[in-house]
Structure formats: structure tokens, C-alpha cells
Amino acid sequence: MASGGGNNRNGTHRNSLKGTTTTSTATDKPLSVNSNPSKPAFKNKSSPLTGASSGLRKSSPGSLGGGAAKDDAGVPGRVRVAVRLRPRNAEESVADADFADCVELQPELKRLKLRKNNWDTDTYEFDEVLTEFASQKRVYEVVAKPVVEGVLDGYNGTIMAYGQTGTGKTYTLGRLGEEDTANRGIMVRAMEDILAEVSPEIDSVLVSYLQLYMESLQDLLGPTNDNISIVEEPKSGDVSLPGATLVEIRDQQSFLELLRLGEAHRHAANTKLNTESSRSHALLMVHVKRTVKGREPAHSSDNGNSTSMARSLRPPLVRKGKLVVVDLAGSERIDKSGSDGHTREEAKSINLSLSALGKCINALAENSAHVPVRDSKLTRLLRDSFGGTARTSLVITVGPSPRHRGETASTIMFGQRAMKVENMLKLKEEFDYKSLARRLDIQLDKLIMEHERKQKAFEVEIERITAEAQNRISEAERNYADAVEKERLKYQKDYMESIKKLEEKWMMNQQNQGNERKMVHIAEEVAEVKKLLSKETSLRKAAEEEVDNLKSQLAQLKMSEALANSEILKLRKMVEDEVCQKEKLEGEISMLQSQLLHLSFEADETRKRLDRGGPGKVPGGLDSPVSQVRSQLKGSGNGEKASVAKLFEQVGLQKILSLLEAEDADVRIHAVKVVANLAAEETNQQKIVEAGGLKSLLMLLGSSEDETIHRVAAGAIANLAMNEKNQELIMSQGGISLLSTTASHAKDPQTLRMVAGAIANLCGNDKLQTKLRGEGGIKALLEIVKCGHPDVLAQVARGIANFAKCESRASTQGSKTGRSLLIEDGALPWIVQNANSDASPIRRHTELALCHLAQHEVNAKDMISEGALWELVRISQDCPREDIRTLAHRTLASSPDFIAGLKRLRIDY
Ligand code: ADP
Ligand code: MG
Questions:
Q1: How crowded is residue 873: how many other Cβ atoms within 10 Å of its Cβ?
Q2: Taking residues 665-679, what's their average pLDDT?
Q3: How far apart are the two ends of the chain, measured CA to CA in Å?
Q4: 167 marked as part of a ligand binding site
Q5: Which parts are the ARM repeats (predicted)?
Q6: Which of 43, 328, 498, 663 would suit a FRET pair with 235, their CA atoms being 20 to 30 Å apart?
């Protein structure tokens, strides 16, 4: 804690008339405020108490009169103490006339010398030493002004007077200066400065005035409040008096009246209590709230980027400073007060507060851990002033009379200790949210009103714009309709004109063309005539030559007539031979001629397309079934075969196939014959199928009613059906039903032979068994046999044998179970019946079929009952083919049913 005149000097640095010193080693050294580095420097004479400049708003930061503390910890600020000496009053001038004053002041050295006796003094140093001549103004400026400045800047401040009764405490603090303005005390001057600084519109100055007497706090502005409670805020340590009257001060006059009123109440109270004002403590409290203009709060984290919007929403920053001016009760000892019995208690109370204050100051001065603040109301009220956050200035008042040397010494000691008390000054700054809310409310109302006005104006504007837009739209629509009509009429007119012009042009063209045509025609005629003329000429020439030639020939003929006559006999014989040959070929030639007719027509077209030579040779021998065609081709030699191949090559398969659907029946017949011929050659089969020939042939079976076509087509299909892949195609394209229908309508056994041959080929396909049977293939074969022609029966037998063979294979592999489908469809009687046929192809196939059927036990019973057993026995013995014989034998020997059957029929086998 900084000390202005610490214990080390107090009473230890003494000047003695005898020149003796007691303790100090620095006897002759003048006391220097700068000698102790921890001691604040008081260089500025104009503000000796604080180090602040005398200008009200020029205080330097960190000093008592300085700027804002920038953190919560505050800045250190020692309690400043001034001593003021009252001039001798009239009584003293008389009573102490022969005595010197007990104090001697050295204001320039800020020292006070207290006379102990005629030759010994104690020297004390204060922050300011005010002589009996010090003016009230000067006292205000050095003691109070820095504190008042602090209050205006948001610090709490305390100005207090301590001293014996009659030494001028009230004179220093409370003089109103009504008789002489120069006498105005600190209270009046402080208020003058405050009022000069605050803005009445945004700042406020509130005052309460109280008296503390015998531990009871009385409201001097509301005398009925005679026991006001003290409320301490635990967090901030702030003390407030919620019961005290607070009067807002707007001008100096009202403040003076308030002080007068307070004084009157104090006087009344003291009269009532039968006491003097000197025995009570008077407290004036001034609450100053100021709005900080254009400044951020000290603790704001604003980084300077805030927008104006943010600024407008920021609550105003306010600083609240509280100035407490305390006129303490007299500090004199009780025995000197001249009071009666009652005042002893009273003095105790007075001294309770005062002595508590003294104890607190002692504790603070000694940095003691415990400060007994709660011992009295005065110390509770002043807890912020000593060791708190306020700036505190204490003026101790002393009188000059040596008779009161004791009180004076005690007062001086009090002041000395108070100088050691260090406060931590804190800026009382906060955001005024209430006022922000008020301001925002007003702003909001304004905005709402403005918004409503704008909304209304906007609606009116929208209506106006809508109406205008409607007008414009209807006008635009009218204009558009007019324009469209105009355009339409214009185009119509243009169009009519164009048509007219075109017609004229056309007429002109027609005329021109007519003339041209005539000219061309004449030229053509001329050319034609010329041509005829030259032809006539050449013909005439040729005729003349012929005449000459004939003439010479006639001569030759005549000459050779004799020779010729001998030859005639010879030639006659040759002619007869020729006639014979001619008759033979005539039938064939007539057919070829008709064919040639069609093919030459076709060849013409083909030639055009292929840009080739003449129609070539037309193949003959097509008017017969496949086998006949084959034999005919064989018979007519390689030349004809080659012509079919040549035709195929020249005309193209696709073209030939397309003729299958020709409208002319003859062409169709010839075409199907050619295709049948081609299908007989294995090399052509694939090409025919790929080119869609198979499909066309099947279609012909269904669509044509011509039996020749049926026969030849069925023959072609039979040839194609030799290939396994084609068999599937035939089946998938409804071949069985087409072939069955064809058979049912057939009259020619050759047709039936072709159909049966085709089905027989299909019967040899393992995969198609079920489908073939399902579509009536077997039934169709059994129908066909009705015709009785051995060639037909041979094909049927082949088909049945094929089917039986496949079925037997499937049964052996396990993919077929149950009775043979042949037996199911009733083929067995026919097989048995024909098994011993005279025609060897029929017999061979039926024998084979029986053997295959016999391979499977499931067929045995039916076979036995249908008489197949006999045939099997015969086959096993008589069949010319050894493999069939062996097969039959092995089957009979291995089948239990057959063995049983043989036994039953008593066939010895
Ligand atoms: P206190 O309040 O300490 O009891 P007062 O202020 O009432 O003392 O002073 C007592 C008397 O002394 C008053 O008449 C006052 O006018 C007078 N007095 C005090 N100080 C001075 C001074 N500095 N100059 C002139 N008169 C003074
Ligand atoms: Mg007084």
C-alpha cells in the first residue's frame, strides 16, 4: 500500500529545538515525496492531492482524476488526505493570546508540525496541507474536484471530513455560500461541476441526504424514514439504501433548496433528540448516470467490424458514479464534550461508528486480513470508500488552539493512517438495456407505422399497375387482330396474283411445247422416211444380187441335177429315219416350247436386271415327280443337268422361289418342279431352306388345289426332310397337318408316296417322336395305307420302322416309358399283317418294326394278342437278313412274356 507519510515517518522524524533527533538517520534531509518509490508522486501543484491537472476534463489516466479503468481489477488509488487548519476564532484569539498555535504548517513541503511543547515538534506529511488562509475554492479543487471528475467518469467517489467539533468540517463541506458565494463549500461546488457536465436529456443526477445518529439512519429528505436499512450487494459489494428518498436534481437552485430542507430536517431531528448536529454523521449521496457517447464499453469485445445495424441495436453504454460526501460527527473525546449523562451513551454510539471507522482504517493500513466493516453502520456505508473501489479524499480539520492539542494529534494520526489505505478504482460501466428496449420500442412503432403506410401505398400502386396492364393488353390484342387481318388480306391478294402469273406462264409454256413437239415429229418422220429409203435401196441391191446369184445357181443346179438324182435315194432313207426320231422328240419339244415361252419372258426381265446375254437353254424333263425328274435328267444326259444348274445360277434361287407364288398356274407348276429338281441335290437343300423355299413349299401344300403341285412339292419336302435340322423346321411349320391334308385329298398314288416318304423321313427323328404322334403323323400313315399301292405301303412301312427304332432307342435310354405309341395309335395289326408281305421293301421294314417293338416287355402282351408272336418266330427263322433274324431270336429267348406266350401257344421254340 502506498503511503504519503507512512509510519516510518510518523512521529519518527522529529525536529527538536534542542537539535536532538530520536530515530531518524535522515534528520536534515527534507522529506521528499519521491524518496520512497512506492509513494505516489505529487508533482503537480495545481492538484496536489491527486496528481491530476486542475482542468476538470484533463485528468490523466490512472490517477484519481484519471480515465476509465480498463479491467475488472481496477487501478490502485490510495486514499488521499488533506489537512485543513481553521483560523483562530474570537474566543481563541482571546484565550490563547499568549500561546502559540499547536500546529505549524509548511504547505510548500506539505508538512504539518505538531508542537508537543515549546521545544519539541512532530512533523507529518500529508497529500495537501491547507492553511487557515486557504480559500474554499482552492480547498474544493485540491480535495474534491478530482473525485467529482471521477464520479462523472463512472467511478464511485467519497469526500469526507474528519475532525474535532468546531474545526470546520461543515464549513468545508456544507457551506451554502448564500451570504458570500466565495464561501460555498464542497457539496455546492461539486454539484455545480456535475450539473455543468451532464446532459439533462440523457443523463440523470439523483440525490439522497441522510443522517446517521446512534446507529440509526434517518432520511433528511423524508423525515418519516428514520430507520433506513442498508443493503449490500454480495457480488459487487455495492451498498444501496432502497428506503431513502431520491430526488432528481436538474439545476443548482433546486439542489440548494434540497440542502436547506435537509439541514432544516436535521435541525428538527436534533432538537427532538436533544442533540447537536455535531454528534451525528451527515451523508449526501449523489448518483450520477451518464450515457457514454460514441464509445464502446471498456469490457466490450467489439473488434471494430460492427455494422451500423449492429450499432443501432447496441444498448447505450452508461456510467454510474456515486459521490458520497460525509460530514462526520466530531471526533473529540467524551470528557471534553461537556455533555450530560445522556450523552455518554450517545457519545458511545457516535464513537462506535467513528472508532469502528478508525479500526477499519487501521486494519486496512496494516494490510490486516480482517477488516471489521460490519461493526457499525458507518463502516458498512463507507465500505466502498476505504479499501473498496471508490476514489476517496479525506480532509481532516484541525483547530490551532494548544488547549485541544490532544484531539488535534488524534485527528492527525487518523489522517496519517487513512493515507495508507489503498483502494482499487473500478469503472462502473454497464449497458442500459432498459433504455435500449425503450428506444427500440419507439423505433419499432415508427417502423410499423411506416410499413403500414408503405403497404397501403403499395396496394394502391399494384391496383393502378394492374388496371394499366389490363388496358395495355386489350389494346395490344386489338392491334394484333387488326394486323393479322391486314396480313391475311395482303397474302390472299399476293397469292391470287401469283396464281394468275403462274397460269399465264403455264399457258405460254403449253404453246411453246406444242410447237416443239410438232418440229420433233416432223424431224422424226423425215428420219424415218430417210431410213426407209436407204432400206429400200439396200433391199433392191440385195434383190439384184440375189437375182444374179440365183441365176448362177440355176446354172449350177442344172449342172448338178444328174448328180443329185443319185443322191436322192440315199437322202430319202435318211429322211425316214429323221421322221421317226422327230416323232419321238415332238412331245418333249412341245412341252419345252411352252416352258421356253415363260422362261424367255422371265429371262428378259432377268437380263435387264443382270445385264446379261440371251435366255439360255431351258431345261427339260420337269414334268414328272422327283424320281422321274431324276431319271429323266439321268436319261437326257449331263447336258440337261447342267442346264438346270445353269438356270439356277443365272436366274437365282430367290427368283425361282418367288415364282412359286406366281399368279399363272403353269408358271407355278414349272417353278415347283425346278425347285424339286434342285432339292434333289443335297448341295442345294440348305440354300433352298435358307432362302425360304421350305416355307413356300409347305404353303403350296396348303394353298394350291393342283395335285401336280401337291405331288411335286411333297416330293421336294420329302427330299428336304432327309436333313435333321429341316425335319424340325417342317414340324414347327405345321408340316404334319399339311401333309395329312394333302394325303386325304390325293388321288394319285405318287402323291401319297411323296407324302408318306416325307412323313417316313420325319419318323426317323428321335426328338420329334411325341410331337409327330401328337399331330397325327402315325394316324396319317395308317390312312395312307388304304390306297394299297405297294410303293406307297413301302414308304409307310419305312416310316413305321423308323418310328419303332427311335422309340426303342428312347425306351432303352429310359426317356420313354409305357406302351409304344404305334400300338397306342393302332398300327400293330397293320404291321403284323404286312410283316410277311410279298413286296420285299414292305416286308423288310415291317419285320424291323416288329423286332424293335418286341425289344420292350411293355409291348409284349399286345404283340402276343395281335399275333405278332408267330411273325417273330418266322422272322427269327426265315428272315433273309441275318441281323434281323438274330435280333428276333434273341428277343423271343429273353422275354418272359414271349416265352410264356410260346408255351401257351405250344410253339416249340
Ligand atoms: P464543525 O462542523 O467542525 O463542528 P464548523 O464548520 O461548524 O465546525 O465551524 C465552527 C465555526 O468555525 C463556524 O462558525 C465556522 O464559520 C468557523 N470556521 C470554521 N472553519 C473556518 C475557516 N476556515 N475560516 C473561517 N471560519 C471558519
Ligand atoms: Mg459541523
A1: 20
A2: 86
A3: 152
A4: yes
A5: 651-693, 692-735
A6: 328
